[in-house]
From TrEMBL:
PROSITE patterns: HIS_KIN (PS50109), TPR (PS50005). This is histidine kinase. GO terms for molecular function: phosphorelay sensor kinase activity. The keyword Nucleus does not apply. Keywords: Kinase, Membrane, Phosphoprotein, Signal, TPR repeat, Transferase, Transmembrane, Transmembrane helix, Two-component regulatory system. TPR repeats lie at residues 163-196, 243-276. The lineage of its organism: Bacteria, Pseudomonadati, Bacteroidota, Bacteroidia, Marinilabiliales. InterPro entries: HATPase_C_sf, HATPase_dom, His_kinase_dom, HisK_dim/P_dom, HisK_dim/P_sf, Sensor_HK_Regulatory, Sig_transdc_His_kin-like_C, TPR-like_helical_dom_sf. It comes from Labilibaculum antarcticum. It catalyses: ATP + protein L-histidine = ADP + protein N-phospho-L-histidine. Its EC number is 2.7.13.3. Gene3D superfamilies: 1.10.287.130, Histidine kinase-like ATPase, C-terminal domain, Tetratricopeptide repeat domain. Residues 1-23 form the signal peptide.
């Protein structure tokens, strides 16, 4: 059986409704599966898409904005509400020109901005209210809200917001015919947007500058700005701004009585405005075309254009544009020399102006009531903010005090630990000093006393055959005692910081010659060969006393552990920006465990007896460690048992 056509249509509608319902249910189900962060991101994405589509497709922009609003409301994302309401209000006001529909969104944006203490969105809300009242022709309220917005953005240091507010204030002053102030505010906005590299924003300000110069009567300047603005609109692909620019250039061609060119530009503007469903722009286009028809005495065509323009202005409920159309009727009939019609049209304009003035008065009274309510809300908000501010200040003070206490405690802990380390080091130094005094320094004096008593007995008995031998022992003990005493004094001075770094001009060869002379007798005595090799010919800045003491100790050490016929070699070379001096012997060497603690002044190292049965104190290398540190250098050793040792000192080369 074949169904009648209307039954088929009903069935199709039923299926479509079920499909939409199912799709919405499925979308809600998908949302519920998302995490809180993902829902938040979804709302942001929808809001951004609403803003992106505002010029290209305002209807789609509203759909995205409404969906974002529903999700934000459903999931209590209160902080997102001021921004979403603000976007929707702008789309409704500036891109759909639905002033009545935009009003609830504007007030909602303002209310939620106050509740969330969102100063940025509050400033945008004031700015958008200024736009609304400018479009409806209420100049006093438009100026008031635009100035509120500019004041907040300036206090916040929000440069983008300041540019928008400067444009709005400029538009108000242009409506008041104060072109100097208008141009001043537009130029401020242009400078900010240029610094922000906002090409679309710069293009919109160039358009307003062009319109201002056009109203002012500077047509040549206006044309230049229109052309620059048109170029910017082409780059940013903003069709609406391009249409505005074409309309402005057409006005200038009309003023210059180039009617055919004016007609062409008006028609091109109409095409672009129809392409974007931009009825607001069509109002001025049809007025311009009507004037061209009047110049060509095409009365019927011109009246048709004015009627179309008036219908659009009334449908958009734009008082300023309605007045402009009524005034244009009077001008149109004046061009046609129909003064009766011109007078009737002018009277209609005056009547409409009175009606709109009454509406404005009502709006002002209503706005005063809204402002009273708003002030109350603001007062409560400010009290809450003040209370929160004091709480935050108290928290900051408490945190600062806690930080000070922590820093003081840490400083005391660090100081005590540093003092304890110093005390431990002093105690070890004291123990080492007493050990040397009680043991090592005592031995040479015991030898002196013993051999001097034997020598005295031999002399009394008149036996002189052992005198030379005993005298040699006494001399050797005295020499060893003096060396030990000098080392002990040097080490003590280094420990208490009494040795100062005093660099002077030094030639390495002179230092090596001095060392060779001072150790000559010992080399002959122990039958050890000493060789010097220096590759540094130039003078350098160094402390010769410190280097002499270090090298003297290292050479003494090498002699102590080198057998008869052995070789001790000193080498000095320049390595990058350092001087490196090595003392190498082919003596007995030392095991790895002694090397590891050789230069650690906090560890005790028992000195190994020399090849001539000398007993050391370990002070010599301690002195070398302290002195090379004072000279901003380092010391290290390489040694192997049975294969000798190589001591290396390294310090900065300074000329």
């Amino acid at each position: 059986m074949i169904l009648p056509r209307h039954y088929f249509t009903l069935l199709l509608l039923f299926l479509c409704c079920n499909f939409v319902t199912f799709a919405q249910f499925d979308a809600k189900k998908d949302i519920e599966l998302l995490s809180k962060d993902e829902i938040h991101q979804r709302v942001n994405d929808l809001s951004d898409e609403c803003w992106r589509l505002r010029e290209i497709n305002p209807d789609s922009a509203v759909l995205f904005g409404e969906e974002a609003l529903q999700i934000a409301t459903r999931y209590n994302l209160k902080k997102e509400l001021p921004r979403i309401y603000g976007f929707l209000s702008v789309v409704k006001l500036h891109y759909q020109y639905k002033t009545k529909e935009s009003l609830p969104y504007l007030h909602a944006a303002l209310e939620h901005s106050l509740r969330q203490k969102d100063s940025v969105q509050l400033a945008y809300s004031y700015n958008n209210l200024g736009d609304l009242y400018l479009l409806t022709g209420n100049i006093p309220l438009s100026l008031k809200f635009s100035e509120y917005s500019l004041d907040i953005f300036t206090k916040l240091g929000n440069s983008v917001g300041q540019s928008y507010s400067n444009v709005n204030v400029g538009l108000v002053y242009r409506a008041k015919k104060d072109y100097k102030l208008a141009l001043d505010y537009f130029n401020r906005a242009k400078k900010i947007l240029a610094n922000e590299k906002n090409e679309l924003g710069v293009g919109s300000v160039l358009l307003e500058l062009a319109r201002t110069y056009e109203e002012k009567g500077d047509m040549d300047v206006a044309m230049v700005y229109y052309q620059r603005a048109y170029n910017k609109s082409q780059i940013s692909m903003n069709v609406r701004y391009a249409a505005f620019c074409l309309n402005g250039m057409a006005n200038i061609f009309y003023f210059q009585k180039e009617y055919e060119k004016a007609f062409e530009f008006y028609q091109n503007s109409v095409k672009l405005n129809k392409q974007r469903n931009h009825n607001f722009g069509l109002i001025d286009d049809y007025i311009g075309i009507a004037f061209v028809y009047a110049q060509q005495s095409k009365r019927a065509e011109g009246e048709a254009c004015l009627r179309e323009s008036l219908e659009i202005a009334k449908s958009l409920n734009l008082n300023a544009k309605i007045l402009k159309v009524y005034n244009s009727y009077a001008t149109f009939y004046q061009i046609l020399n129909d003064f009766q019609k011109a007078t009737e049209s002018y009277n209609a304009f005056l009547a409409q102006n009175d009606s709109i003035f009454s509406i404005q008065q009502f709006e002002i009274i209503n706005e005063m009531q809204n402002r009273f309510s708003m002030r109350q809300t603001l007062s409560d908000t400010e009290k809450e903010l003040e209370s929160r501010k004091f709480q935050e200040m108290y928290m900051v003070v408490i945190i600062i005090l806690m930080l000070i206490i922590v820093i003081v405690l840490f400083w005391r802990f660090y100081s005590h630990r540093k003092i304890n380390r110093k005390l431990a080091r002093i105690n070890k130094t004291k123990d080492k000093l007493f050990s040397v005094i009680s043991h090592d320094l005592k031995n040479p004096f015991n030898t002196l006393i013993g051999f001097s008593e034997l020598l005295l007995g031999e002399v009394r008995e008149g036996q002189y055959e052992n005198v030379v031998e005993f005298t040699n022992y006494i001399h050797q003990s005295s020499t060893e005692g003096l060396k030990l005493l000098n080392n002990l004094l040097d080490w003590s001075r280094a420990q208490i910081g009494a040795i100062a770094f005093n660099p002077r001009s030094l030639v390495i060869n002179d230092l090596f010659d001095e060392l060779n002379s001072s150790f000559d007798s010992e080399f002959r005595k122990y039958k050890v060969e000493l060789k010097f090799h220096n590759s540094i010919e130039e003078e350098l800045k160094a402390d010769s006393d410190i280097l002499r003491t270090i090298l003297r100790n290292l050479i003494s050490n090498a002699i102590k552990y080198t057998n008869e016929g052995g070789l001790i070699q000193l080498d000095a070379i320049k390595e990058k920006s350092f001087v490196k001096i090595t003392v190498k012997d082919d003596g007995t060497g030392m095991p790895k465990d002694i090397q590891d603690r050789l230069f650690d002044v906090t560890k005790t190292t028992n000195s190994i007896r020399g090849v001539h049965d000398e007993q050391g104190t370990g002070l010599g290398l301690s002195i070398c460690t302290e002195l090379i540190r004072i000279h901003n250098g380092t010391i290290r050793v390489e040694s192997e048992v049975g294969n000798g040792s190589t001591f290396e000192i390294k310090f900065p080369f300074v000329r």
